[in-house]
Amino acid sequence: MATYWKNGQRVQLESASISHAFSIAVSGSDVYCSGDYFGPVNSGRDTAVFWKNGKRTALSPFTNGIARSIYVYGSTVYIAGQVWDSAVVWTNGVQTWYGIPGSMNAIAKSANDIFFVGNWNGATYWTQTRFKTLNFKGFAGSIAVNGSDVYIGGGVNDSLGNSHACYWKNDLYIPLSNSYKESAVNAIAVAGSDVYAGGYIFDGATRVPVYWKNGVMTKLSGEGEVKGVCVKKS
């Protein structure tokens, strides 16, 4: 069942079947989550949904969909995801446009535009007026905006199809690790001049959670991967 935790207290979201929450945003006293719901209402398909204060609303009630990211700006709620094989944006619950075939994984807003990050034959981002392919052999799954600078985290595949961690700053490719068999950036955050990227490395035996600060890697304990990074400015 789709769930979030507030100060360690579990909050289960409205669901009568299998469901997942992939993203969360808070605006004032309102808590928004996006994800998917699998149930008989959709003839056995995954429905893209969002929850506001625990109440579920279907975004794709008659199609196969998933809502991967949610972003609240003022009174506008942006949700990005996928319906069938097409990247989709919903604005205030209404599907506003289809992207070209692919998926959308993250959302962020700059002073002048809103960015939807995902994959279309490689690492790609869309704005409301255009799209940009960063690397045809890569993938993009996270974004951070710091002033006029836009950072997008992901990976680029080598000739064997193994991904290697990287991020792009204002479309400029910055590799983080290619000394391991596989690695990736799943999350990115910026504080002042410091860039933090979280993800994993795979040495051929174990997947290790790691983060990079300004390109310097730190391994974390256990096995797994980092999915989110948040930095509190001092």
Biggest sheet record: 4 strands, antiparallel
Q: Roughly what percent helix?
A: under 10%
Total number of strands: 22
Low-confidence stretches: none
Order of helices and strands: EEEEEEEEEEEEEEEEEEEEEE
- How many domains, in number, for the residues? 2
| Inertia-based shape | globular
Helix count, per DSSP?
Answer: 0
Task: Kindly name the structural category.
Answer: mainly beta
Beta fraction? over 45%
Structural Rg: 18 Å
Q: Can you give the mean pLDDT?
A: 90
Beginning-to-end CA distance, first to last residue: 36 Å
Strand order of the largest sheet: 3-4-5-6
Account of the protein in words:
This protein is 0% helix and 64% strand. The protein is mainly beta and 234 residues long. It has a 4-stranded antiparallel β-sheet with strand order 3-4-5-6, with no helix packed on it. The mean pLDDT is 90.
Strand and helix map with partners:
Blueprint: E1 3-6, E2 9-12, E3 18-27, E4 30-38, E5 46-52, E6 55-58, E7 65-73, E8 76-83, E9 86-91, E10 94-101, E11 103-109, E12 114-119, E13 123-126, E14 131-135, E15 138-146, E16 149-157, E17 163-169, E18 172-175, E19 182-191, E20 194-202, E21 207-213, E22 216-219
Antiparallel strand pairs: 1-2, 3-4, 4-5, 5-6, 7-8, 8-9, 9-10, 11-12, 12-13, 13-14, 15-16, 16-17, 17-18, 19-20, 20-21, 21-22
